[in-house]
Amino acid sequence: MEDEPTFDPDLIHAIFKKVWTRRAQERARNEAEDVIEGEAAAGPSKKNRSTSVNANGLKLSCELLRLFVTEAIQRAATIADAEGSTKIEATHLERILPQLLLDF
Amino acid sequence: MNGSKGEEEEESVRELLRDRFRLSSISIARSEALRGGMEVSDPVLACIGDLSFKYAEKLAVDLELFARHAGRKSVNMEDVILSTHRNEQLSVSLRSISNTIKVKEPQSEKKRKKPPRKEDKSVPSTIHIDDL
User: Fold this and answer.
1) What is the ipTM score, two decimals?
2) Min CA distance, B68 vs chain A (Å)?
3) Which residues of A59-73 are buried (b: 16+ CB within 10 A; e: fewer)?
4) Do B61 and A19 touch (CB under 8 A)?
5) Is the pLDDT of residue A63 over 90?
6) What are B23-64's pLDDT values in tens digits?
7) What element of type H or E holds B39?
8) Residue that wins the pLDDT comparison between B66 and A38
9) Mean pLDDT (chain B, rounded)
10) CB-side exposure of A24: number of CA atoms within 13 Å?
11) Where do the structural domains in chain B lie, given as residue ranges?
12) Which residue of A has its CA nearest to B58?
């Protein structure tokens, strides 16, 4: 039984696929524009097929995303604790945000 | 092709995914805070939920770039580890997590590479005998 909540791999997969199909469509659109402008396309480009992810890559991605959230909380909690507070407030998060975004 | 209608649907699907993701994110954040004996304010949860979703989409872009740069269409664990290259501690953590994942892998997922062999298929020649 898991104590800690984590991200659902299917959800993350769906989010990734959305991004990848969007980008594949953009590439296809750009290629079509190139053709109209007179550049010869050498048949359907490999770049147009959207990216996929293997099972382990997906698991590790879920872990990475979970780490992002837990790091944010842990770092903000440290600040809150230093101020003698037991509740993490926006001011605590503000303090750690720049470094968090640099680290990820 | 319904350009704008298709785009609206796309956007609403994305928003649904975003909302589900943000809920998960909030759940993880609350749980982590509790582990440290802390509460979290709602604005902080909202901010973390929003930021982590943006990070997820950014991660998707980076992973695709790394995989394609390596000549692959499928993202693997190495790509995920590579995406953390700006933070060595994080890379080290991820690599050790990836080793744990590999160990838990069921045997059937491990591919065995067979060396390609040219087999001499000797086809018995059929001699056509005309019956006279």
Assistant:
1) 0.87
2) 8
3) bbbbbbbbbbbbbbb
4) yes
5) yes
6) 999 999 999 999 999 999 999 999 999 999 999 999 999 999
7) strand B39-40
8) B66
9) 85
10) 19
11) 10-103
12) A19
Contacts of A20 in chain B (CB under 8 A): 60, 64
* Residue B110 or residue A35, greater confidence: A35
What single DSSP character describes residue A83? T
pTM: 0.82
- Report pLDDT for A44: 56
Distance CA B79, CA B70 (A): 9
How far apart are the C-alpha atoms of B109 and B101, rounded to whole Å? 12
- At the topology level of CATH, where does B10-103 sit? Histone, subunit A (1.10.20)
Is there a contact between B38 and A23 if contact means CB atoms under 8 Å apart?
Answer: no
Question: Which residue of chain A is at minimal alpha-carbon distance from B86?
Answer: A103
Tell me whether residues A11 and B79 touch, CB distance under 8 A: no
B40 forms beta bridges with A88
Q: Which chain A positions have a beta carbon within 8 Å of B102's beta carbon?
A: 56
